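DUF3465 domain-containing protein: structure tokens wanted.
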Amino acid sequence: MDDSVRQLEDAFTNQISDLQVKSHGNIVKLLPDDLEGSRHQRFIVQLSSGKTLLIAHNSDLAPRVKSVQLGDYVEFYGEYEWNPEWGVIHWTHQDPTKRHIGGWIKHNGKVYQ
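Answer:
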């Protein structure tokens, strides 16, 4: 298990949120977009540990990740928020107000931010 997955495992165990993380995994489920408030493209990523995370990518502030399919490998950098289902990664985009660290998703060699 690499350090990024270990960091996420520790965050889940200790119910830590607001943690900036960089990691990677494979898409195991595509979810409908969340259209309430800011729109978010959503999918579930499985880490090498077998644990899964929800990626909530703000498609109002960043381009949608194109052509994602089940099994695709993605890398991501964003903020981890704990929840009982294992957590969510958000802030995978730049902050237009420049008050939050910008994040990204990398898919098929392209960076979405």
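The first strand starts at residue 19 and ends at 34. The chain has one helix and seven strands.

Cheers.
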